[in-house]
Amino acid sequence: MRRLSPREAKRLLQRMGLNMTALEANEVVIKAKDKEIIIEEPEVAVLEVQGQKIFQITGGKITEKSIARRIQIPEEDVILVAQQANVSLEEARAALEQTGGDLAQAILLLTQK
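The structure corresponding to this sequence follows.
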């Protein structure tokens, strides 16, 4: 089987109803639920098939960052934990953030100190 040149491959794809183009990009960021994947200086190819776009990303330096999700803690919970553990509101809020909003764990954490 002979090798196809990029030009021949592009023509073949067009005959099949596919369109492939290059996209210049400095950085691609993929945001997942718990992390970000950053690809610096990637090669991005856009393949268009039946009105749908498919992005192919290759190369570049890949970096992963964990995302610290800050949860919303109701003020009533902070007050309750502060009263039960006999601590300040700031300490109660910090304990709730550390335990992911779990009231019982936050109270235990503060009373065991």
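The chain has two domains: 6-66, 75-111.
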